[in-house]
Amino acid sequence: MPKLNEAVAETTAKCSSDEETAAAASSATLAQTAEYSHTHSHSHSRMSSTAPKENMQHGLSTKVALSRLHEEIEKVLLQHEREHDAESCYCKFRAAFMNQYDSPLGWLSIGTTLVTSGALLITGMCWPAICLLAILLLDLCVVIRESNLRRTEIYRKTRHALSELRLAEQHLSDNWHVSNYPHLSNPMSPCVSLQWTYRDGHIVNLPWALLVRGDCIVLRPGHVSPGPCHELQSRRHFSTGEIYGASSAQLGEPPVKPTARAPIPDLVCCLESTPYLDNLRLCLQNSLNRPPTIYNQQRYLLVTKYIQQWGFITALIITLFAGLLRLHGYGLATDEKHNWRHVLIASPAAAVIPLLPLVFPLLWIYMNLWGVARLQCFLKTPQAILEKKTSKSFEDLDMDTPAYDYDSISLLRSNVLRIWTQLWKGDSELLPRSANLVQVLGSISALCCVDKKGILSWPNPTAEKVFFLHNTEEEPQDDGSQLSMSTESDNVNQENQERGIVAEVLDLTHDQHCPFRLEFDDHEWKAHIKSLKPLGLAILLNTCSPLTHEHYAQFCGHVSAVAMLDKDLVPVTNRYAMFESSTKSLLHGRCLCELAKQIGFTNHATDRFALEGQLASYRHLQPDVVRRDIRFARQLQLSTKVKVPFPHSLSVVMRENPGGYLSLFTQGTADIILDCCDDFWDGKDLRPLSPQDRKRALDFYQRSALTSYCTAFAYRPLRHGIHGALSGPLHSNGQIAYLELPPESKLRMQHVDKSHCDFEGGHHVKLSHSISTDSLLFSESKDEDCNDVEGCFEMQCHQVFIGMVTMQYQAQNDIVHLVERLERACIRFVHFSKENELRSRVFSEKMGLESGWNCHISLLSEPEPEKEREREKVPTSSKAKETESATGNCKSTTNADTVAIHPSSVQVTCDAVDAARTATPTDKPTDLVGDPEDGPKLSYLLAPPNNLESSKTLSCSAPGAISNPDEFKPPKIGDSQENDELDSSKDSDENAALALESEPNPERHKQRHSLDSAMDENCRSLSTLTESTDQSAPINFDMSNRAKLPRGIENIRPHLEQVDNVPLQVSLFTDCSAEATRQMLDIMQSYGEIVVCLGSSASNDNANIFLQADCSIAVEPLYPQVCQDVDAYTEANIIHNKLNFQRQSRKTATKADESFVSEQLLECGANGSGARAMQSPAHTVSPIYLSRLLNSLPCSIAICRDDPLSLVAIIELSRRFSLGLWNCIQFWACCAGSISILNVLCACLSLPPLITPLLGIYLMCIPVPLIGISLAHIDLDPKIMSRATSKKQTEYDSSAFAFVMWCYGCKFLVPVIAMLLAYWMFMTQSISVTEPTAITDLESANYANFYQCLHIVRCCALFAILLHFALVSITFVHRDHALWQRNPFRNHIWAFTCLGLLLLHGFICSLQMLLDESLQEYLLQLWLPILVLFSSSLLSLFISELAKFQENKVNTRYQRRARLDFGTKLGMNSPF
């Protein structure tokens, strides 16, 4: 690298001198430019392919870099692990019970269990006390262990990532090639963070997460520094997020004539720290700060608060009060001895034991793990994907057609059990403890996507409209073609109407299943094939030529850095976020190969053309022209200012063989292209480009560029070629220069040397310049190749306008279906767009999001008034200041905190900026005032147009720059003074200053100033008279959001508190930065929304957003391609490298190993079965995979975009399990409450507890949990995905509490009353069963009879209460269906569980009766209580079914209300 470093130093030394000399003469500038650009411009491309030996010492090897990354990550991880290990046992014990929502066991529950155990020991009931203590000890061990696993879960996931890094470093990275990294010329995407980096002597496009300290990176112009770094030679320092660009002193002022500019060189910098460590620390510190799930909150509210707190206290107080009454003789008469220990201790203990936690913490923890295991098994089980017929690729699939046959899916319980065991041991792949994916997906109310390109849309934009000018003079009036731009105004030139020139727009439809395939909508599009052929050829030779990709990428970097200095392109404050998105959108992916193929070109159509040179040009935008000419964008009433695309063009000189004919093909922004054109191709012949035709094209461009990417194409034959620095890298020995044009084209043509023009003329020259075919074919003498600025500039003039193509990002088909299915499930799909309102809204409509009132909110903050006033302090005249203030609303948003608006994606308020500023380069010397020989003397003066067509010498790219030939008259010299007085303030002071610099004569300056003023006034006066082609643009409706919604993230919360809740119901947020998105997610969560975040795993900005959401899903986006024939990256050479290494590492593979390998191959779809798992296992370790692994640490799921993951399927699975889990908890709580109430009522009736403490412990630990677990199984129900999820209810609500008590009280009221009634009947008949023989034995006989009957009733009560619970549980099997509508025995687990429990306890009860002969004589006397005890179970079933019917009616009403609320977005400022 010594040579490269010397070149860098040499470049830096020459930079300032070249800039100072640039203004002297263009030839001198070009010579110095050649030296200036010799260093980095193409050295990186040579090094990436050849890797000379001197470059091997520059940068790190892959092994060293991966080892260093492993060491630094492990160092940070060890620091956090040591901090955790250093905590005392008390702190860990306290942390397990401190958070009431995370722990199912609270301090109060532990205390009540200990108190109850002590009370039982006092009464002599040792076995119940021992059981309670043993269960409590088990609960403590499990809860503390789970808490520790939860707190260290992110550490274990990081350890897994480290093991993958180590494996790649030691064994797998040797086979990595340059092709395994993204292509160097790939278009940039805001969803992908890449950095050119030296690895193994090559420059690779390295994922951001793999950068390490000491890496040598190539910092390109306009790009953001990934971390603190310094340049190797000059030691220039860059901080994190700093943009590398040139200063205004280096670039100088915008030139008054075409000037060569050297490209800003690439810098080789050394990273001073590892950028990923900041995100890693963020994940390790905040992984436990997620909001509690709705089920954890409801579990706390129901179990902990209502049952274990309120229920325990209530039962204890009532039983103690009843016991005190009994001790004082106020109780009912019974035969039980009133022992104070039994009355005041045993009886209350029996009443509160069912309310203790017992096995509930174990039940809650392990059932949740079982749900996660089912989901993980579902993700890894291969499913057969429905085949998609290619013949129907352009047809929409049925919305009800699933991507999987879910009815045939069966999750093997052995696999689920294996995964559950891994989770129990601490597996952290899905973050089951810190971000319970099943609970979150089961209650999700909003799916928020924070990235677009490659996830929601295809990675590359595709052609959507083709525009060209067409002559319909000889065609019938109605030919079936789409004359969508034929609308003319009343003032249109009659001559032009007679010619029949119309603007033709052909629409194209994108294939839903292919990233590039297109079709014309119009079946008769081939009628325009002659107009489309030149466009297709220009696409293949310029846009999609592989020879132009590298030069275009470098040119875009230079333009991005230059645009950074333009206040109308980049905000003044905090330009980082705005400009990062700006640079990424400039390289928006310009592949149009498919359009050329549709037109009819083959892959070999360009074989006979050879590239001779590339000419890149650009020009600045002037703020006064922006404020003056942009009217259309202001009429949209947008809340954010839209930036203009930077005017630029790239021309290629092609030589056709045989023959050697030279041609120039140009593509670029339409403003600069139209300025270069005199004629247009109408399909048959060249025709002059009239002002009306130019106006049509500019209207189409300005409107289309608001919402899409618009590229114009032009062509001209050449007499001579091009060489030198301006010709690009091909024939310039690596010396490159770009052509910077003056901001105002009115000032340009005066500097064109007539010797370079292909014609001679005066005032009567022909309107349109044309080159004779004979002069091209039979000219014996050819001019020398151009190598100076004037010649290269003239080469771009006098071109033939071919047409324009608009490109748009298309929503992927599965996303459209996902949005509709989520809406059916009352789940709001929210898109956080980094783009402005116009682009975001157009794309949201493609996804199917609503676009009516209250449809979107901009999170871009309003600029501060002081900064806005400072920005408005520009040296203009007083009237110009008034004009600025009138248009202040259009520029008020340039001071954004963090905005992502794409400059290449045209920004709304500045489209015509290009306009006035980009006057046509087709201005001719014949238009100059005076005789031809006087031209050089009067070259700074422009004559007034003689007619409408000659007004093309003005700034025809401005919306209002078309003059009316009937009203415009050349101003006389005498009138110029009046015009100067009236209109001079409307002209730019900069133009006047330039005129003064060019010519010191004040009279000439005055004359020039008055002429410009008159022309500007005329342009403005006619801007409202010329009707624009409304039908041409994709914007034929009101794009503004006129409802008074808040703007700026800081205004969202006040609006929700004071106005309405519309911001929570909006599906589109625009102008989103990473921090604004995170704050909006926080606001949504604070208002009860359950948020799942979907984002790119290749972006370095998403870590904080992933941590904020309830749970997150990281998606590896589809990478944009520089061309559809060039892969973004390939992994063919390393496919399944990890799996193959594992197989080779086992010298003697056992059968178990082979079965495991075959299972893994099946999961990843590598066995040819056609079935793929939703989340394929990682068997290919590549740079992309490691980046995804590191960036997705805070995410529960990390997948690739082409993995067949169905969000609807996993949401449906999670909803079913979550409903089943809550069904189980509700049944458990009802059983616990009913047993406790039964014992409390027994105490009130002065009866001993019917359910003894040991019996209560047994019931609540074995039979009731078993029935509850069986109820967790929910059958497939199509209605489950049309149900609205409930909001979080974390506080006491009297109406909801009353409804729950009434609904569930009715279900369990009959068992309690029946048991109590039978119990009373047993006790009242016990005295008359046997009569004593002696009076002295009366007391002892009554005592014996009492406890004999008590023993009988308790034996029967255990079986009877289980029978009641089993019959009542029938209503819990199918909660939404009546007993006669759906058979409960379809739940086989529940049926076998209940049947087994009843048979077992019935057998035990019968066995006790039969074996004890003393009990048999009582049975005949007690048949009526026994009949009441068991027959009332049928009444329990009937009452429970009635209660469920009423509950379903209330739930149906609630669902209708919830769906209505979901679909209503009307706030107080809505129109209705």
Description of the structure:
The longest helix has 41 residues, at 1423-1463. With 1472 residues, the chain is of the alpha/beta class. It is 46% helix and 10% strand. Helix 44 (1263-1271) runs antiparallel to helix 48, helix 45 (1294-1324) runs antiparallel to helix 50 and helix 46 packs parallel to helix 50. 52% of the residues are buried.
What is the element layout, followed by pairings?
Blueprint: H1 2-22, H2 26-36, H3 43-50, H4 62-85, H5 89-98, H6 107-122, H7 126-151, H8 153-172, E1 194-199, E2 202-207, E3 216-219, E4 229-231, E5 237-238, H9 248-251, E6 259-261, E7 267-271, H10 276-286, H11 294-327, H12 340-352, H13 360-380, E8 383-384, H14 413-425, H15 437-442, E9 446-449, E10 462-471, H16 494-499, E11 501-510, E12 518-520, H17 529-543, H18 549-563, H19 575-586, H20 593-599, E13 609-619, H21 623-629, H22 632-635, E14 648-656, E15 661-668, H23 670-675, E16 677-681, E17 686-688, H24 691-704, E18 709-718, E19 738-741, H25 773-777, H26 789-796, E20 799-808, H27 813-824, E21 828-832, H28 837-847, E22 856-858, H29 865-871, H30 878-886, H31 888-891, H32 913-917, H33 973-983, H34 989-998, H35 1002-1022, H36 1052-1058, E23 1068-1070, H37 1074-1086, E24 1091-1096, H38 1103-1108, E25 1111-1116, H39 1137-1145, H40 1151-1163, E26 1171-1172, H41 1183-1191, E27 1197-1200, H42 1207-1244, H43 1253-1261, H44 1263-1271, H45 1294-1324, H46 1338-1368, H47 1370-1373, H48 1388-1411, H49 1413-1419, H50 1423-1463
Parallel strand pairs: 9-21, 9-24, 13-19, 16-20, 21-23, 22-23, 24-25, 25-27
Antiparallel strand pairs: 1-2, 3-7, 4-5, 4-7, 6-19, 8-26, 10-11, 10-20, 11-12, 13-14, 14-15, 15-18, 16-17, 18-20
Helix pairs in contact: 1-2, 4-8, 4-10, 5-7, 6-7, 6-12, 11-12, 11-42, 12-42, 13-14, 13-42, 17-20, 33-35, 34-35, 42-44, 42-45, 44-48, 45-46, 45-50, 46-48, 46-50
